[in-house]
Structure formats: structure tokens, C-alpha cells
């Protein structure tokens, strides 16, 4: 176990603090903390450590010492945790000094140069990052993708939307955040969701972390008016959920869990019930996919409590479906069916002005698709296939990723029914759709279907699907 930090002394501590040197505040790390208190951030550090098997005794005092500059470089355990929490961000970008400088190890004589060091690059404002986030070239995933991993490029049309490029450039660092910055954050959320609907998550995740960090920087600066502050907190929280979903759908479940937790923390700080309900809804979905059905039920129920005052039956319907998915994972058919009936009744009450913007995907197709997933988890394959067919037929063509998802679900359900040729045919259609969709989650579903069909290669349709699947897996 990593010991608690001792008071700084004249010698180097395990966490790189040196009492003999003047400490400069670590503003970069403070920005990464965002709106959370030091104690809340320390709790997030401990959770992240557990996710990767580390044990650190992080508390508010440790966070304070980092931000004050007393800890100039974390020890290796903390470094692994921080890199897990902020994928793609180097220690230097977190505001830490190079380890060899902190440890008192001078560079080797052979490595020294008379060339003066280059001045640091001019810092970019959060608005600069928001505008540029979708203009850079594709990035590779920042953490591993389990199972037949692949690293596709981002979709070719991943360019900045007009409202993002038109965002007002920040003036002096002391200026309070205003409407243009809030607009830019909200536009980034919409752009990410649009591209995910069309292309899936795998090519988007690496780049989407950039506007999220920028949004946290805006939160740190603070807004001049309460209305702007509320928009900024809601936008940053929704952005954290959107980026978390990209992590979730591309197989980075630990990253997704951390991002959803950050959104929940923002919701609690801002006393935003709608954002809290959304964060809990995604936490429930993630818990189901991660094999933690009890947590899925509890998170879905917490989401429903948060949403009670929001006058949106459609939101409550979706949250009931999240709960049903947890009960299905627990094998509790009776509780699952009760939650499904409740979801159907709430859905039939229709849409409302209070329905959240992020629920644009929730229609007849999603309702059927989520019910299909419940019956599949319960092993009731014929009923699962019925609802999967309904989901494919009802899906709006705009949601390319969801059509691929429901078609892959149908293939798996048909395989479970023993309808092998039909399963192979549906699997082939899903593979066709994957030419424009990048989702490790959907690919994993098709891999499961291929595994179920492999003993039946003598069927010509099955053999054709397996051959195509193997070719796609190799090329990926």
C-alpha cells in the first residue's frame, strides 16, 4: 500500500516533493480537477485506482499538495492512476515536472547540449481547444480495447461544425465565461452525438477528450452570470457523459465509468436533477454491460428518483428499461417484466417539452431493442428475436450505428433460437453496416454470434458469414 504523504522535508519524498525548492502552484492539475472539491477529487482518484488494481491513500490533503506545487511529480502508483483518469494526457500536461529533474538525477553528460531549451508553446485557451478538437487528424485509441482489438481511423467527415468554429475567442484569462463559451460547449456535445449516431465510437473517442478538458477549464474560470454558469455545468456534464459513452461503446469500460462518475459529480455540485438522472442512467447501462447487474438496478432506481420532478414520462420509460436490464442480468424474470410493463405505460404517455435533448435516440426502435436485450439476457430467444426484428424495422435511417446494433442483436437472437441460416443472413447485413460504423461493442456481439455458429459450418449461409467475419476481423 502506498503510504500517506509525510510532511515535506529537505530530501526528495516518494511523491517528488522537495522542501528546499520554491513551489509554484500546479494550475494545470487544478484545471483537471474541474468543479469537484479536493475531497471529491481524491475519492475519484481512489475509485480509479481500484479500477486498475492500484492502492493509493489519496485524500484532500494530497490533492492540495499537488495543486500547491509541493508535489512536483507523483510516484509511479499515482502516475498510473492519473494516466488512467486522463487518457492521452502526459505528466507534463498535468503540470508535473520530469521525474529525473525531481529525483535530483542530472542528465548524462553525453545527453547535455549547449542549445538553450525551447520556450514553452503558447498556451491555448479552452475555446481554442473546443474549436480545434474536430479539425485534427485521427488519433489512435488511448487505452486497450478488449478482445479482437482494432484501431480504425475517424470518419472522413469529422470536421468542426460552423457554430463551434464561430465561437468567440477568449480574451484575457481573468474574463468571466459568457454565452459564446457556453454555446461552444453545447455545440461540441451535439456534434459528438451526431457523429456517434452515424459512425460509432471507436474513431471518435481519442479526439473527444480534448473539448472535455476545455470545458473543465471553462468551469474553473467561472461564469459571470448564474444562467451561464448553469448552462456551463450542464454542458460540461453532458459532454462528460457523451465522451463516456464513446469510451463505453468502444470497449473502454474503466474510462467510461470514470467519465460517468465525473458527470455525476458535476450534477451534484450544480444541483442539476436532469444531469444526475442522465449520469445514473448511463452508469446503469455500463454496469449491465460490465456484468454488475445489481449495480445496474440500483443506479437505474437512483436515476428514477432524480427524475421524478422532471415531468418527462419518456425519460422515466427509458430509466425503467435500464432497471429491467439489470433485473434480466440477475435472472429475475418477474421483476424484469414488471419494469418492462412500467416502461411501456410511461412511453405511451407520449413526448413532452420537458424531454431531455439527449433522448432524441429514444423511440419505438430503442424501446423494442432494449426489451430484446432483456429477453436475450433471460435466454428467451424467440421473444428476443421478435423485438429485435421490430427494432431494426422501426429504426430511423439517420441512426446508422443503431441499425447495425439491432441487426447484430437479431443475429445473436436467431442463433439462440436455432435459426442458423437466418442468423447468418442477419450477421452478414450487420457486417455490411460496419463498413461505415466503428463500434467495438457491435463487433464483439458479432464475434459471439460467429462463435455460436462455428459448429454449423456445413450450412452454406453460415459458412459464408463465418468467412466474411474472419476476413473483417483479420483486416481490423
UniProtKB/TrEMBL annotation:
Residues 104-115 have a biased composition (Low complexity). Residues 1-21, 100-126 are annotated as: Disordered. InterPro entries: TPR-like_helical_dom_sf (IPR011990). This is C1 regulatory protein.
